[in-house]
Design goal:
- This protein has 731 residues and is an alpha+beta fold.
- The protein is built from 20 helices and 29 strands.
- It has a six-stranded mixed sheet with strand order 2-1-15-24-17-22, with no helix packed on it. The chain has a six-stranded antiparallel sheet with strand order 9-14-10-11-12-13.
- Strand 1 and strand 2 form a beta hairpin.
- Helix 14 crosses helix 15 and helix 16 crosses helix 17.
- The longest helix is centred in the C-terminal third of the chain and has 21 residues.
- The chain is elongated and about 110 Å long.
- It starts with a strand and ends with a helix.
């Protein structure tokens, strides 16, 4: 039985992955970075907070059948696009369809899945593969449910969702037409488990229509928590025959398809196969044919009809006459129009173009001896203006992507080159669920970089900076950037530290993702992110002269006369603006700032009063709401520093800079911010185009400095709610 380990911090937990009733995968919790793997399918979290037993008990007490308010029997649960059903569907309970419905009739089998009018063959192909392994199926479909004892019209199903197992409850109202199920159904009219499973998965994804079109790997992983490797059968795959045989032995789920152009989806070929259609692989056997070994692959069309392979080893073909009746019985040969057929391995690899193998652990398609694997799992996001940097084709922003580090120390025990195997999977989250909003899968991939001895010189307080990626090639990467839910890769790497950078193909595309890193030996992993620090340390003893030196030191060492002249000039300027009270308030500062910078930044509107209030609050130590000359002078030279940093990133002098440059501009001023802190600033201050204006940049700098000074001032002291509110509101 295969095992692998999920790690969080210093804790390792080992789970079996060979189909035991305890678990075939792992649960990963919901923290923002490393995720715990303590939860298993049997104690899955209730989806949308709906607790099965509590709801069922309440229905039994009240003598009613459950009607699900979270997925009601209405048209929007069928079609998110608002289109009308082609026929008048009626939501009907199984007991109204047949007199004696059952969850399972004679157990579950791949023949219990017949596709209805919904284009979700990818899902049904995955369900068919699941039925081959009873222990795996019963983790998804708990068998202790029926239409007799304790029946209350409620059923439950379990799915792995982006690092955690969730239990989805549904009512048993199913779409019908003329008293028959319109979507997936069993050959046995009274058997309901497959139709109910499809409904639960539709609820999880928002509607039945959301299930149209997809890849079988998506459903296979949701049924197991496994990781899927994809093989392009058009390329040479010298070890593939052995992988197929071992995958069956290790309870891997497998599906295949033939690539199709958009106008070729479900195009019927003369050989009986269908392009752009998902098939299940339900068996792989090696037989002895007159002294020669022959590998046969058993495949099933989820349509469950006569559309089957017509070539060698097809139903009733002459090749079967070469086997004895005993050999045919051992293979379970039937020649029915049930959508299932056999092919020779060579025909399989020449006719199909894509193979997906979902392994219950990364070694399932690997060596004969089972290994123990460690999984490091993290959640992340690509956010516009913060961490959506795009691929390496965009060198100015690629470094902004999320970065993760893994340290491979001990080579694999059986690796001839003393390398370490690393399996990486990046899953984009919830794209199917938001189909109704027009969302499609993003085109995603990842790159791996070796962190050598010189990596520190490129580090930006925890992250690898732009120069690192400009001057270092990737060590490995995903084969392609693809618009599927997950992209995976298996790599053999020398021991060392590596940075992994998942990204979308284009910059500024937003989405959440889960990254999984599997290794045979213990591998420490972490996120690479800036540790929030502020290097600027103002002190009360700091002289005005030192401020002046910082502003003009690029022009050479100023003389005392020059310092005095600057001081006098600024003093005269202050007196003109301050008026009779000798102080400047936010309104007066607004006029000053606007007059000075409107000429410098073309097209800049009047500076906002909010920005000026922030600047006054930052320097106003006595909370008078006004600035005396000394405070104004400190502010003025501080603004000059901030302006210089801003202009370095405002290339066209428009008064705006791309928000993705904010990290660099702030770092230039000594403000080193983590990605979550940076994200908060971009969400608060960036405009619709993802730009930061000079006005907003000044507010950002004021906020950061004021927050930091408040934090320092209360260290070691009690910090009351009033203190917090006063500090947060005024700054």
């Amino acid at each position: 039985m295969a095992t692998f380990t999920v790690k969080q911090g210093g804790t390792r937990k080992v789970y079996s992955a060979g189909g035991s009733k305890k678990t075939s995968g792992y649960h990963l919790g919901k923290p923002s970075d490393a995720i715990d793997g303590s939860r298993t399918p049997s104690d899955a979290a209730p989806y949308k907070g709906q607790k099965f037993q509590d709801i069922k008990n309440q229905c039994l007490r009240d003598g009613v059948l459950f009607e699900d308010p979270e997925f009601p029997a209405i048209e929007s649960s069928l079609f998110f696009s608002g289109k009308k059903p082609p026929r008048p569907f009626v939501w009907t309970r199984p007991k109204e369809i047949v007199s004696n419905p059952e969850m399972f009739v004679g157990g579950a089998s791949r023949f219990d899945i017949s596709q209805g009018m919904l284009g979700d063959c990818w899902l049904l192909a995955a369900i068919a593969t699941l039925t081959q392994y009873e222990s795996l199926l019963y983790q998804v479909v708990p068998p202790d449910q029926s239409f007799t004892d304790g029946y209350a019209g409620i059923f439950r199903f379990r799915f792995w969702q982006y690092g955690r197992w969730e239990e989805v409850v549904i009512d048993d109202l199913l779409p019908t037409y003329n008293g028959k199920l319109v979507f997936v159904h069993s050959a046995e009219r009274g058997e309901m488990w497959s139709a109910l499973l499809e409904k639960a998965y539709a609820k999880l994804n928002g509607s039945y229509e959301a299930l149209k079109g997809g890849q079988t790997s998506e459903a296979m992983e949701d049924f197991t928590g496994g990781v899927t490797e994809t093989f392009d059968l058009r390329k040479a795959q010298p070890k593939l025959e052995g992988i197929l045989l071992k995958s069956v032995a290790r309870q891997s789920l497998m599906c295949c398809s033939i690539e199709a152009k958009p106008n070729e989806i479900e195009a019927k070929l003369e050989n009986g196969l269908i392009k752009g259609h998902a098939y299940s692989i339900t068996g792989v056997k090696k037989i002895n044919l007159r002294g020669n070994p022959v590998t046969l692959v058993r495949i099933r069309n989820p349509w469950g009809n006569e559309r089957e392979w017509k070539g060698a080893w097809s139903d009733g073909s002459r090749e079967w006459g070469l086997l004895s009746e005993g050999e045919k019985r051992n293979l379970g040969i039937t020649f029915d129009d049930d959508g299932e057929f056999w092919m020779a391995y060579n025909d399989f690899t020449s006719e199909f173009t894509r193979l997906e193998v979902c392994m219950l652990s990364p070694d399932s398609a690997g060596d004969v001896d089972r290994k123990t694997w460690e999984a490091n799992v993290y959640q992340g996001s690509w956010q516009k203006g913060v961490s959506a940097g795009g691929c390496r084709n965009f060198p100015d922003s690629f470094h902004a992507n999320p970065q993760f580090k893994v340290k491979l120390e001990d080579p694999d025990s059986d690796d001839e080159e003393d390398n370490c195997t690393l399996v990486i999977g990046v899953i984009q989250k919830n794209r199917r669920k938001i189909k109704k909003l027009g969302a499609q899968n993003l085109t995603i991939g990842f790159a791996i970089y070796k962190l050598g001895d010189d990596a520190d010189q490129y580090a930006d307080h925890g992250r690898m900076g732009k120069d690192f990626f400009l001057y270092n090639k990737s060590t490995a990467r995903s084969d392609n950037f693809i618009n599927s839910r997950e992209v995976t890769g298996r790599f053999s790497l020398p021991p060392g530290e590596y940075a992994i950078v998942p990204s979308t193909f284009k910059p500024q595309e937003e989405g959440d993702f889960l990254i999984r890193m599997f290794s045979e030996k213990g591998a420490a992993a972490d996120t690479l992110d800036t540790q929030t620090t502020i290097e600027y340390r103002p002190s009360k003893e700091e002289s005005h002269d030192s401020d002046m030196h910082e502003i003009i030191n690029c022009l050479g060492e100023p003389t005392q006369d020059e310092n005095d002249a600057l001081d006098n000039k600024l003093s005269e300027f202050f007196k003109k603006v301050a008026g009779e009270d000798g102080e400047i308030d936010s309104f007066e500062l607004q006029g000053v700032i606007t007059a000075v910078f409107k000429k410098e930044f073309k097209g800049t509107r009047d500076f906002s009063l909010e920005a000026c209030r922030s600047m006054v609050a930052m320097m106003d130590k006595d909370r008078s709401g006004k600035l005396v000359f000394g405070e104004f002078k400190d502010l003025w030279f501080t603004i000059m520093k901030w302006k210089t940093a801003f202009k370095d990133y405002d290339k066209d002098g428009s008064g705006d800079m791309d928000a993705i440059e904010l990290r660099g501009a702030l770092a230039k001023l000594g403000f080193k911010l983590s990605t979550p802190a940076l994200s908060s600033l971009v969400l608060r201050y960036a405009n619709k185009k993802g730009h930061i204006s000079f006005d907003d940049f000044l507010q950002i700098c004021c906020r950061i400095r004021s927050c930091f000074e408040s934090y320092l001032s209360y260290q070691g002291r009690s910090f009351s709610l009033d203190d917090y509110i006063m500090s947060a509101i005024y700054t």
